[in-house]
Write a structure and sequence with these properties.
Layout lengths: L3 H31 L3 E5 L11 E3 L9 E5 L2 E3 L2 E7 L9 E8 L10 E9 L7 E10 L4 E10 L7 E10 L12 E3 L8 E2 L9 E7 L4 E5 L2 E6 L10 E6 L24 E13 L13 H20 L1
Parallel strand pairs: 3-6
Antiparallel strand pairs: 1-17, 2-6, 4-5, 5-17, 6-16, 7-13, 7-17, 8-9, 8-16, 9-10, 10-11, 10-12, 13-14, 14-15
């Protein structure tokens, strides 16, 4: 019915179509199987911080030279946290920012993912920006926490500090004891170098809080994973911007000092492009085993077309 050359051309088109349909089948199957349940997301598309999502911190803590109280601003699809050198309400302190979700996130059967795309604009030494989870558990208010911390002192070294905490404050709590605390730098708390990382540009950071371990990812690449000091309490997602004291030498800088007058104020910024919290998806099965109607239909169409062309030969 066809010349050899014509048949060869049609057969090649068939093969290409068949491959395309099967590839589409694989994509559909994978997307269906790996779809994550989103628990919380903010793209900061408005012009003010959504008070149905977020609360503002107004406190300080040990070795923090900043008192939180600034409200994050929202513009151009970003939330911006600030660190001011002048604090009109707390003389002698910097004025920092902390925001935290009103929603707490509890462990699930597969785990929880916290993901954010952030940029630290401060290049002066002495500041810390963070993306983390934190909660205190009554009655003793022991702390449970997972951190990404970005030290402006360490920007030239491309370092990121990650830590986890469980029942911190309980008897025997010691830094890097592997029970109540663990970090990726047990020497001086400066963090771990990530080749090519520029914290002054946007980067995506992800925490995977799993039933038996905790993982930290930088731009899709696994940075650290361990089982020790894994928190178990429900926690909100948080961001903050502050200035540590001399008890943290890797992050402190004596040249960064609070201003006495408003006219001498310096403002540093930390941007959040988006944040998302989702349930860790179950592992993706082999796509060819997917029996969803759309996948079955695509495979059936591929077989039917192949049968027509083969009979035409």
């Amino acid at each position: 019915m066809f010349s050899n050359q014509l048949f060869a051309n049609y057969r090649q088109k068939l093969d290409n179509l068949n491959v395309g349909l099967v590839s589409l089948c694989f994509v559909v199957a994978s997307a269906s199987a790996s779809h994550a349940q989103i628990l919380f997301r903010d793209d900061f598309n408005g012009n003010t911080l959504n008070n149905n999502y977020w609360a503002i911190g107004d406190w300080t803590f040990d070795n923090n030279r900043a008192w939180f109280g600034n409200t994050a601003t929202v513009a151009n699809g970003m939330a911006t946290l600030t660190l001011d050198t002048y604090n009109p309400d707390r003389y002698g302190y910097f004025r920092g920012t902390e925001i935290y979700s009103l929603q707490d996130f509890a462990m699930t059967a597969t785990g929880i993912e916290f993901e954010a795309r952030v940029r630290t604009n401060m290049t002066a030494r002495g500041g810390v920006t963070a993306f983390f989870t934190y909660a205190q558990v009554p009655p003793d208010n022991y702390a449970h926490e997972i951190d990404f911390e970005f030290l402006t002192n360490q920007i030239p070294s491309q370092k990121v500090l990650v830590t986890s905490w469980k029942d911190w404050g309980a008897s025997g709590s010691t830094y890097n004891d592997g029970i109540h605390h663990k970090s990726n730098d047990n020497t001086n708390g400066a963090g771990q170098s990530v080749t090519g990382l520029d914290l002054t540009r946007f980067n995506t950071f992800k925490i995977r809080w799993l039933p038996n371990s905790t993982e930290w990812y930088v731009n899709g690449n696994l940075l650290n994973s361990w089982q020790e000091a894994r928190p178990t309490a429900p926690m909100p997602v948080r961001f903050n911007f502050w200035a540590p004291g001399a008890l943290w030498p890797a992050a402190y800088d004596a040249n960064l000092q609070p201003a006495d007058l408003a006219s001498l104020n310096q403002t540093f910024t930390y941007d959040i492009d988006y944040v998302q919290v989702s349930v860790v998806p179950t592992s993706v099965p082999e796509p060819t085993r997917d029996t969803s109607p759309i996948v079955v239909a695509i495979l059936g169409l591929a077989r039917w077309l192949r049968g027509i062309w083969c009979r035409s030969a």
